[in-house]
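USER: Please consider what follows.
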Amino acid sequence: MTRKNLILVGFIILKFILQYVLISPEYDLQRDEYLHLDQANHLAWGYLSVPPLTSWFSYLILLLGNSIFWVKFFPALFGALTLLIVWKAIELLKGNLYALILGALCVLFSCLLRLNMLYQPNSFDVLCWTAFYYFLIQYLTSENKKWFYWAGIIFALGFLNKYNIVFLLLGLIPAILISKQRKILAKKEFYFALILGLILILPNLYWQYSNHFPIVHHMKELAETQLVNVDLGDFVKDQILFFIGGLLVILTGLFAVLLYKPFQKYRLFFTAFVFTMLIFIYFKAKSYYVIGLYPIYIAFGSVFLSQILNQGWKRYLKPVFIALPLLFFIPMYEMAFPNKSPEYIVAHPEKYKKMGMLRWEDGKDHHLPQDFADMLGWKELARKTDSLYALMPNQKETIVLCDNYGQAGAINFYSKKGIKAVSFNADYLNWFDLSIPYKNLIRVKEYDENNEELKETSPYFETATIGGQITNQYAREYGATIFVFTNAKIDINKRLEQEINEEKSAIIHD
């Protein structure tokens, strides 16, 4: 094995190690992870929340035993592959060993460490953006038309993972049109690749059509509840922080594709960056949607710097650029990962607030970062629900109904009693089993000081009681209450079916 390959393997091994050690054992999985893992039990070509690709990885995790190790393995793998592609892009651009090490450090010690700690579509999304741009570089370098097809395949996979990759095309197409590379649009292979990509995503498009395009409802709800709170200043600040250790390398990469003569054929990458960023800003996208845009520019910047730092006094700057990602990782290690206890974070709010980490999607500051609060209380909820379920008469005729997908998914993941909790929220709306004649109800409700669930629901059952609450004060679900109702006096299934139809109708007509 060559020296370069040994160093590459070392970076990849370090990547996996970091992804496992940067999370304290006192944290559970994050809310979204439970939903994605539960999709393995309901395979389909589409979901209300995300495209289908994540469910395929979830099914593989299920086959491997559904352990936390494998849940963490796949986002770490996608992050390692992103690093690998940047490495290969640097080699393609004729970067030396210094360029390879610089690029690898900028990718490794970046926001990808935080992104890759969660089992969500975001890690694979960044991988697809990076791979697509790499295939474009391959084509511009060799003009081998096979790279059109590779780009079409990776775009399709990206689309089946997260619709966010559409923004890549929206920014790239006008960049091609105004560049000398517009001749690409005259190649028949370009259109064959588009057709190939369309064929691959067609099953999901048909699913969207058959289900009245729930993505439209999802985007409208997202815009009304979360994107409306996106602040341009915070958006820009996040872009700086995402790759803060490699920021100079990225800026240098943008300069290089615009003005560095050996990179003249890649000039469209500059305008593609500008167009894509403007589109994200126009649509008030969440700041992390943009992360996939940056890694490829680390490759350009690393190669350019390796050339200009070889002469005169500039050689002394080489260690500086190597050191920056490592130095900026120190404060990142202290704040960006759930490696500190909730008690510690609550006791030191000033530095977390200064970095904007206590600001949630509702636009308000809270005690913990949102992702961290979303990783607490779930085992407690599942354990208490299991205990109550075990005491129920006719357990098979007992339905566990939750307020949100996080509650339902966590109970299903941790349950030792084989509970299949459901909710009228997100994909669980389609996962009710109404073939069972339900007689009992375990109802999990989010905390509300004016909650009247017991008063409103108890008349329909012979017995009603409060079975427990989430007591972890740092959990986002703190105070969530478990109500227990037995021996229904009404037809529960009929009421459930009515509610399901109303929710689906709301999605269709919203």
About this structure: The chain has 23 helices and five strands. The first helix runs from residue 3 to 21.
